[in-house]
Amino acid sequence: MIRLANVITHDGTFHSDELFACALLKRFYSSDLAITRTRDVDKLNIGLMDPNVFVIDVGGQYNFKMLNFDHHFKKHCKYWHNEKSLQMSSCGLVWTFLKKKGFLKKFNKSQLRSLEQRLIKRIDAHDTGTGKYGIWKPSIIFSGYNRSVNNDQQFKKALSVACDVLDNYIQFVISESRVESSFNKVSFKLIDKNILFVPERIDGLMKYVSKKTSAKVVIRPRLTEDNKELWVCESVFREKSEILLAPLELCGIDGELLKSITDIPGLTFCHSGGHLAICSDKESAILMAKLMVRSKSYSRIK
């Protein structure tokens, strides 16, 4: 059964924190929310006294039971229990409400922590100027929706985007969790300390490998559209780190020309960037990975 609910937030210039607070409510509480944007004192007072109305980022009160979630006054400031220097914005306050009330039960502890670290806490830190996260870069996208006229319509547009962004973060975190589970079940092996051989296809593998292993090159299978198995030899990207590349003379070449300048029989393609090569068999992929390690051709990721 859909819970009918109302939300009041402030009018005028809007920010990422109340946008995502509303997006969280639409995603987890009720998709059928009537949102009113106002600073009218009489309307706010009615909302503040109604236990069925969320008053977000406005109203001067924090009251969990009454669904009042303003964070702008010192006596109402709330901080993350595991990061005492990080003050919650309306986004963090609404997230905490949803978590305590059981609306986020679909996520395990690891997924909840990941969503908080990647999204919720970053929005809080950006809005309150506290904590260790600094500027949340996507905020410039949402601030760009503000206009001097017809701002309610712009708010609706920005909220729609915020809902999509939230869904994408959720999808990423769930996918990441599945990758971790799949990776732990696969009998992978490390070759020459730098090469990780993964015998099965795992969607989203590379980002997990970059964080959880020290490998510099990964060998993994890939299926073509006609269900033919190929083997990918791919560099592991890490921020502010050097990555191994294929020898320059092989980059951007495929087919017969590639075969004429290398002794790797199954090598069929080498990307112009040097970070990826495709082979017809795993033995050739292993040879290619070893060649990348031996060549010591590096590029630094900023």
Key phrases:
single chain; seven-stranded mixed sheet; alpha/beta; 2 domains; 302 residues; five-stranded mixed sheet; elongated; Diaminopimelate Epimerase, Chain A, domain 1
Give an overview of the whole structure.
- With 302 residues, this protein is an alpha/beta fold.
- The protein has two domains: 176 residues, no CATH class; 115 residues, Diaminopimelate Epimerase, Chain A, domain 1 (Roll), CATH 3.10.310.
- Helices cover 40% and strands 21% of the residues.
- The chain is built from nine helices and 16 strands.
- The strands form four sheets. The chain has a seven-stranded mixed beta sheet.
- Helix 1 packs parallel to helix 3, helix 1 packs across helix 6 and helix 3 packs antiparallel against helix 4.
- The longest helix has 35 residues.
- The radius of gyration is 25 Å and the shape is elongated.
